[in-house]
Amino acid sequence: MDIIDNIMHATMRSVLSNGELISSPYFQLDFDDFGPTSPDAPALQVYNFPIEQKIAYASLFDHCVIEQSIQKHFWDINGNVFDDEGILAADGNNFQYRWEMSDGTATVTNTVSNFSLSTTYHLFYAFVLENTRIAQIFEKVIEKYVYDEELGVAPPDVRQWLLNTESLFYKDGGCRVDSIRSYIRPDAQKNRKNAYYRMFGAEVAVGEGSSTVAKPKAVNQEFILIFERYLSEVYNAYRHSRSSCCHSADLNNLRELAIEIRESFACRRGGSPGGEINAYVRTNLAVEEYSSVVMMSWLALMVSDNTPIVNFLGCQSSSIGDRLQRIGQKVGINAHAQSQALFEMAGAASNVLSIIETGTYLESIGNIQTMITSLNEPGDPTIDSELMESFLVLINNWEKATGHKLKAETQQHAPKEVTVVEKVVTKTAAVRAFLN
Predict the structure, then answer these.
(1) Most CB within 10 Å of its CB: which of 234, 252, 382, 402?
(2) CA 187/CA 205 separation, integer angstroms
(3) Are 107 and 100 in contact (CB under 8 A)?
(4) Helix (H, G, I), strand (E, B) or coil at 345
(5) Residue 126 domain-assigned (yes or no)
(6) Of 337, 364, 385, the domain-final residue
(7) Structure pTM?
């Protein structure tokens, strides 16, 4: 499940402390026809709601239901899932979402999401999508719609989605986990940019000049350099494994770089997220991360297909990047030229960085070796092969989006300290930008 699926699950299945489900005081919620389905033969059974159900949910006539569900899911991922009686679930279940399904002969309960080894959804996902300029484009779409009839009169579901989006993400939110804005931090875009810069040492490539982020002192300034080095080393090890075998230097370098990345994130968060109950919610930048990912996922959903809003705007296309480009042109804001590559790499980047940050799986030589060689022979998907696929998707689209070459043969396959890379990048040196 992605974050929108899980927010829907929080509405339909995750009970509050009083044992009740989220409801609307204005009308009866009816989700009898809603239910997630599993894709064919994944290594991990991930259940997703069909896109038609997601769009219907996003167009509910009471945005407060969605807002409560966003907040409920934030607490659920911190181990606060209640059972049907309003009692905190047992240790084995307090990081899980479950859904009863029938296979035609019996009803079974499946675990559809498990957060015990995860933070939530990585901030880098939001950072990548922010670079497409999707937030600014839809802000302009909503502005044009509510101030004029230049875009036409929208059908009810489109109109409601526009109003829900405005109410959830483009207004003062106070103390809410889906909108970080107050009189101290009045500019939501600047708030997101500040979080991105602190974690990744890079600014988004597009955005209004008024939202230029003030440079904080505590920054992972070398992240882009180190992460690009890491991706390049992963590709070199993968290439070598297919021609002969992995060099020990490849594996040792990958281990050291994974540690470097994990520790840099831990510095910004003030601790290591995941694990014990409530650990994540108490870390630095947790709320900023969650709210940013919710917003970008919400907007991305609406251009993931020829959805009602895309059809209303007359911006149909066969690709997500082109749909955003057309919507941007319609409202006078150009999307990033490499939006397609950015959309395609966002999920893969989130998968990779979440695994690096929330555990030590990629710090084991044996695990690294297994992952690198997992695609060398045909077979059913495994956790390792899916992770390697994420790396390849990320590497290919990173090159397309940034123009930075990651596949060049750079490693001399002799043991050496990875920290040499960091030693030559001083804090006063110019750091390579994510996007030019």
Answers:
(1) 234
(2) 18
(3) yes
(4) helix
(5) no
(6) 337
(7) 0.89
